[in-house]
Q: What sequence folds into this?
């Protein structure tokens, strides 16, 4: 039983052999305190950069660059059919980005939303989103609902055909 008369540190928690560096030559770690002579490593505050490889050509410069970052890419917010169960209402339920944001299914009402097919449609849904997978459309329509998607934009060609130019 422990009491104030027989307290002791936990086994292994004390290290009697730890030497205080830079506190006289008698300790064996005086003067430069194991840091060598001059240079950044001997100064306080020195920190080697995480990617530094000792002066050899670093891996991020040895490997080639690949690809690019498209600033105009718009990623769809994914919503599965099972997520539609979180929407309130009886009978036909309107599914729009604003309704999904209110139900905390998605974060951003102004970004495109794609409906995916995981789960089963338990009610009739009227879906007005920017995209939907074919199996998702089939499941919604099978449950008696409707899916209204925007018309696909006409395919843009770089040059008009001769017949379209009037030549």
A:
């Amino acid at each position: 039983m422990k009491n104030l008369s027989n307290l002791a540190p936990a086994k292994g928690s004390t290290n009697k052999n730890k030497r205080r560096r830079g506190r006289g030559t008698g300790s064996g770690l005086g003067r430069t305190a194991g840091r060598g002579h001059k240079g950044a490593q001997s100064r306080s505050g020195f920190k080697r950069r995480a990617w530094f490889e000792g002066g050899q050509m670093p891996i991020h410069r040895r490997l080639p660059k690949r690809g690019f970052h498209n600033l105009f890419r718009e990623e769809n917010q994914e919503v599965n059919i099972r997520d539609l169960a979180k929407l309130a209402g009886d009978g036909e339920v309107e599914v729009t980005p604003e309704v999904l944001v209110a139900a905390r299914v998605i974060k951003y009402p102004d970004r495109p939303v794609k409906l995916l097919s995981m789960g089963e449609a338990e009610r009739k849904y009227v879906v007005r989103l920017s995209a939907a997978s074919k199996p998702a459309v089939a499941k919604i329509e099978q449950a008696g609902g409707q899916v209204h998607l925007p018309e696909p934009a006409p395919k843009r060609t770089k040059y008009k055909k001769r017949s379209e130019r009037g030549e």
Remarks:
- The first strand starts at residue 77 and ends at 80.
- The longest helix spans residues 134-142.
- The CA atoms of residues 87 and 103 lie 6 Å apart.
- The mean pLDDT is 90.
